[in-house]
Amino acid sequence: MRFDPELAEIRFGCGLSPLHVPPSDAEMLLAGLRAPDVSARDWPIPGFEGALADARAYSSARRARKHAIDTSLFEARDKDLKQHRALMRDHQALWFTRRLLRCVTTPHGFRERLTLFWADHFTAQGKIAAFRYAATPYVETSIRPNIAGRFEDLLIAAVISPLMLHYLDQHRSTGPNSRRAKRVARRQDRQVGLNENLAREVLELHTLGVDGPYTQADVRQLAELFTGMIYDIKTGFKFAPGWAEPGGETVLGQDYGVETTGLDAITQALRDFARHPATAQHLAHKLAVHFTGDTPDPALVAHLAARYWDSSGDLIEVYTALLEHPAAWQPNLDNVKPPFAYLASACRALAVPPEALTQLTRPQVNRFFLRPMQRMGQRWESSNGPDGWSETDGDWITPQALAERLRWCMTVPAHILPQMPAPLNALKSALGGLTTAQLRFVATAAETEREGVGLILASPAFQRR
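RESULT FIELD:
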């Protein structure tokens, strides 16, 4: 294997930047994961407590409007509710901009890439207005701090997050023989029941994989084990014994909830799933696809799975295995950048000044980034399901998506840059030594600097990593 600094920054980081020297070796990439998180320090985003604060304020304003007793009071409360909605949209724009700035300015691009990867692996989104913009704070609390530890700790942090419990309806799941179910049955005022969503996704998406060695009976038993995990909008996560199915459960042949009960039994089950050989294989394949291509080298997948298994899911060891394998360094740029990664790498290559982004208003963030991303196929914090965004290249290069990428390249940089760079300088900043004679000709033949820069950013070479 021959380490290529520029290829490393493109494939494993956020793209080349004229303001940052690419990593000199694989150890430098890994050292960035162990170093202080300067990007989070420079561009702070509140943890999930921030999302809960927004949710509490919004819910309170909504209740106040609902209980308004006359027209004038309703109008006043309605105005207050609209102000809370606007504040939450302001927060979304601010948090998006700071996540973008982390990718644009970071000296440790590998950290940002892995945060995005694991956030997608553990997709969780708000399904009600109060939690509509809670995904970024969820990532800040549950994902980002755990990407360089053991997978089991990352798994537990994601699964017991209030947003995950909300997204997969776990907060409504009740053990069929629980005290709560019996109480509701006596009153006969409503129905409660078991929900299998979280249990199914933990096995199918988060750990063993869709072809993993589990059955519907395992899903059912795990769903019963998970009962009792709920959240309160005032306090966040809580375990409610009255909601939990009494007795033990058996999942993948292992008994839980007999000697160890409650949340301890749940976390023990999650640790066992994280240490399962099927989980090693599933995560190895997914990492290989994400960083190398839709059809990864089987030897690379096997190497990653073996390192995961040997290290009991130590993610730093798995990343080390990824960076040391020759298949990770094949020179062709095959993977298409998803819209967020594409726009972030464009801003990074153009060295867009931070103040140019921090000064954008919410309508400008929508106009320059969020709406274009949606037209490119990626609505921010709104993937189609719990399996997250597609890793298949063809899903990102539809005619409509490519047309939007070209439109963005030709228009938006001129709005956010104080001065357009010379095309040849932009080409060097964007692709370094990976450029071609054809691209150099395109850069010099364009009629204006704006068109030259746009054609560089629209080129297939820049759109891949």
